[in-house]
Amino acid sequence: MTRQPDKQKQLKQLDEQLVELLARRFRLTDGSPELGQRPESVEAWLRQIAADGGLDEVPKNVLKTMFREVNSAVAARQAVRKIAFLGPPATFTHQAALEYFGSAVDFQSQATIADVFDAVVRRRCHFGVVPVENSTEGAVTHTLDMFVDTELKIVAEVNMPIHHCLLCRGARDQLQTVYSHPQVLGQCRLWLQRHLPKVHLVEVSSTTEAAARCSREARAGALAGKLAARQYNLPIVEKNIEDFSGNTTRFLVLGEQSPPPCGQDKTSLLLVVRDRVGALYDALLPFGRHQVNLTFIESRPSKRRNWEYYFFIDLSGHAEDRAVAETLRDLREDCEFVKILGSYPRAT
Q1: Active-site residue 92, yes or no?
Q2: pLDDT tens by residue, 249-302
Q3: Distance between CA atoms of 154 and 147, rounded to whole angstroms?
Q4: Of 36, 54, 76, which one is at a domain's C-terminal end?
Q5: Domain containing 119: what range?
Q6: Catalytic hit among 91, 93, 249, 327
Q7: Omega into 88 within 30° of 0, i.e. cis?
Q8: Domain harbouring 277, CATH code
Q9: Is 85 annotated in the active site?
Q10: Stated pTM of the model
Q11: Are 40 and 84 within one domain?
């Protein structure tokens, strides 16, 4: 039987080896940032390891967190990357940005979705992070509308489970007001009706603002996440109060260039169909013809001509894949306008 001191000695030796390997990795990437793995490359690499049965002893989320922080630190050694996100800090978008880029970057809070796009377009920031879709409340239309007039690309997506908490300093039965973002109030509607039917619900611009107001008022609560609770030192009275346990928000990472195919890709498009009977039906035929899976479709008024609509579409595959390329070719023949918003690794 191995004695405890022997195990401690082995652990110390292994930790020293890990530190030395990390130091070698940093030295290898010094002056050559292209050698460092981008976050989407890590995701593809982890998928391959999982397929080979190599994640039995070390959970995938542990490896992902470790490599995310290592690569974030590697990027910071070259030059600190600036990441714009829909703020203020401690919102779910901030949390998604941390999840994707790690902590060794310079996060730049932006007041609006338009400001996030503008920060990346004007190259004040290298990338931007915005919400685009919630599994309970549907599409974030402000984000979709911004793609009409920008040349930015979607370079990645983050699917993040969203868990809402009730924050307050006092007792729940003493609450008179609860603050939160309109989307959050919608995602917790049934819980609020059941547990706080007489409490006044007030919409604010973000979950962070909700937490800030709650921290200043005696009989106020906030619906927000754990990050906001930590920032304002607020007790979590109730956890996971969202009406649907699978509540998930999809976030997009914006940049100037889409990554190459990784084998598990998604492509986003913007279409304008011709003004004739059956135009949308004809536009959808190429997906079936080339066996390309359509995963999302949303229409938005163009705001340029009455009754003209843009269609936002997500499909499985990369624009460089043969089936997708043939689908795009047919779409350009059937549609008035086709714009590729980006091809990027599909989030797990």
Answers
A1: no
A2: 999 999 999 889 988 899 999 998 887 888 888 889 999 999 999 999 999 987
A3: 10
A4: 76
A5: 80-162+248-255
A6: 249
A7: yes
A8: 3.30.70.260
A9: no
A10: 0.78
A11: no
